[in-house]
Amino acid sequence: MKRSIAVLAIGLVAVVALAQENGLTNALRGKASLDNEPRAALMPKMVNNDKRAARAFPMQPPLIPHQIEGYQVDRDFNKCLSCHARENVAESQAPMVSVTHFVDRDGNNLSQVSPRRYFCTQCHVPQMDIKAPVDNTFRDAAALTADKKGR
Fold it and tell me: Which whole-number Å values give the CA distances from 28 to 31, 32, 73, 115, 137, in the listed order?
């Protein structure tokens, strides 16, 4: 066991040395070498415009278009539901939680949000106001289909 750890450690040191020698760095680390810890970037600001973002793929959970820092979402309270719960949307004008969130894992329809869908940020995330760290060439299925028809 000790020999395996030693061989692994020597291999890791060799990989780091080779990467430095060849000038290889990870785009997400910036220009920091692999054996140095880069300075952490400042936290980006959350998008806070309340505009619904287009979904990038079918069945993608909607992004959260507003600030959620400081929201309490735990087993005792869910701040999201103070606007998005069925009984609050008329006043808040926020979109109602999807009807799929009221179905438990056995397929039973519930009067309240299912416990498995209660913790919103398991699937829904806020959008940050940043430039993507790597270029993205993703094109959705509709764009690809339109390209084929245009040929």
Answer: 9, 10, 30, 36, 17
Residues 6+ apart with CB under 8 A from 45: 128, 129
Residue with tokens 């060849």: 22
Domain ranges of the chain: 1-41, 42-130
φ, ψ of residue 145 to 5 degrees: the values are -65, -40
As a three-state string, the secondary structure of 21-40 is HCCCCCHHHCCCCCCCCCCC
Region label for 50, one of left (φ > 0), alpha (ψ between -120 and 50) or beta (otherwise): left
CATH class of 42-130: mainly alpha
**Percent over 70 (pLDDT), the chain:** 88
Q: What is the pLDDT of residues 57-74, one digit of tens each?
A: 778 999 999 999 999 999
